């Protein structure tokens, strides 16, 4: 059975790259019973205070996508019942897990990103640890922990270069120079370029327009990137 693995990564040339070798890999001896993979999207104009007066319903406008999140719990065994753990204590397993996902890297001045993989069922997830909670559930008479479970939460990790490539940025993030045609209006052009007709006042100011209600045909207007 494929085992869940957490692999230490480094950021090199503005890309997240996994580090090879057993010292950089934590392999779960007991796979999680389940895991959660969360996605989120934020929209403007949906809160009570931001709704236009007189509108029957808000018109949500995309703002950004939240970082993905992943949560799961790993069970650790030091009783010797589980194969391949008879010589590995719970303490040693937790120490290695902590070194990979939690410990501060003096070279980068932050904990390392990691790659989580689990056979064919889980698409490789690159993330950074946000929380780790360990519960000890069984002890030897001398007080040594024999079983424990570690609840892990990760926030999706990426670099600026990877984010720009994956987003496949298009018109809202490029500067446009538009030649006005007969019948064009500023709200209409803003809707076409930004998918937001409400940007017309900003564009009027940027182009030093004295009157935005009537546009002269053949006028060149700049539409820069806007957030």
UniProtKB/TrEMBL annotation:
Domain Contractile injection system tube protein N-terminal: residue ranges: 2-164
Alphabetical list of InterPro entries matching this protein: CIS_tube_prot_N
Superkingdom field: Bacteria
Name of this chain's protein: Contractile injection system tube protein N-terminal domain-containing protein
Organism: Rhodovulum steppense
């Amino acid at each position: 059975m494929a085992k869940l693995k957490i692999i230490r990564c480094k950021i090199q040339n503005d890309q997240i790259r996994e580090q090879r070798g057993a010292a950089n890999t934590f392999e779960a001896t007991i796979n999680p019973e389940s895991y959660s993979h969360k996605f989120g999207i934020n929209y403007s104009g949906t809160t009570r205070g931001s709704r236009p007066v007189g509108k029957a319903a808000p018109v949500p406008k995309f703002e950004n996508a939240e970082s993905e999140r992943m949560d799961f719990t790993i069970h650790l065994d030091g009783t010797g019942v589980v194969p391949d753990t008879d010589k590995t204590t719970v303490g040693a397993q937790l120490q290695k897990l902590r070194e990979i996902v939690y410990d501060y890297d003096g070279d980068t001045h932050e904990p390392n990103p990691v790659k989580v993989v689990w056979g064919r069922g889980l698409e490789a997830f690159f993330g950074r640890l946000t929380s780790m909670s360990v519960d000890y559930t069984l002890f030897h008479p001398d007080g040594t922990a024999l079983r424990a479970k570690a609840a892990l939460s990760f926030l999706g990790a990426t670099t600026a270069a990877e984010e720009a490539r994956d987003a496949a940025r298009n018109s809202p993030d490029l500067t446009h120079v538009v030649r006005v045609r007969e019948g064009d209006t500023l709200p209409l052009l803003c809707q076409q370029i930004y998918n937001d007709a409400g940007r017309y006042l900003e564009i009027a100011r940027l182009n030093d327009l004295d009157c935005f209600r009537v546009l002269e045909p053949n006028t060149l207007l700049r539409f820069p990137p806007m957030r």
